[in-house]
Amino acid sequence: MKVIVDTPIWSYALRSKRNGFENHEKELEALISDQRIIMLGPVKQEVLSGYSDLSKFEKLKNKLKYFENTLIIGEDYTQAAKFSNLCRSKGIQGSHIDFLICAVADRLKSEIFTTDKDFNHYSKHIPILLYKI
């Protein structure tokens, strides 16, 4: 099964050297090796944001070129809005990008690899699969 890797996982692996996330980095390496990664444009944008040093930005951009952007289609935006509305009706707030990730994951029947706890709340009300390590 393919896996959408969310921004926090990429950030731990590419930018941060915080303790406690070594298993996440190893798992990401395994997913890359197995060619199971789904890259979404909004996630790539988030990962690349915040680099004022142009040489570091270019280096990271070149690393991420390896992962083809998976197409987001019109239905995904509609589904993301439905997911957002449903979760909001249950008292759960989330970002537009989070719900777009959920919509694409639902359409592609893929898992979401993240450390963002909001996805645990979403998964109680919408049909997403969270990747477990």
Gross morphology is globular
CATH architecture: 3-Layer(aba) Sandwich
SSE arrangement, N to C: EHHEHHHHEHE
Domains, number = 1
Number of strands: 4
Q: Roughly how much helix do the residues carry, as a percent range? A: 40-55%
Structural class: alpha/beta
Strand content: 5-15%
Question: Which parts are unreliable, with pLDDT below 50 for 5 consecutive residues or more?
Answer: none
Secondary-structure blueprint:
Blueprint: E1 3-5, H1 7-14, H2 22-33, E2 37-38, H3 41-48, H4 54-64, H5 74-89, H6 96-108, E3 111-113, H7 118-122, E4 129-130
Helix pairs in contact: 1-2, 1-3, 5-6
Give an overview of the whole structure.
The protein has a 4-stranded parallel β-sheet with strand order 2-1-3-4. By secondary structure, it is an alpha/beta fold. It has a single domain, classed as 5'-nuclease (Rossmann fold, 3-Layer(aba) Sandwich), CATH 3.40.50.1010. Helix 7 (118-122) links the parallel strand 3 (111-113) and strand 4 (129-130). The longest helix is centred in the middle third of the chain and has 16 residues, at 74-89. It is 55% helix and 8% strand. The chain has helices spanning 7-14, 22-33, 41-48, 54-64, 74-89, 96-108, 118-122; strands at 3-5, 37-38, 111-113, 129-130. It is built from 7 helices and 4 strands, in the order βααβααααβαβ.
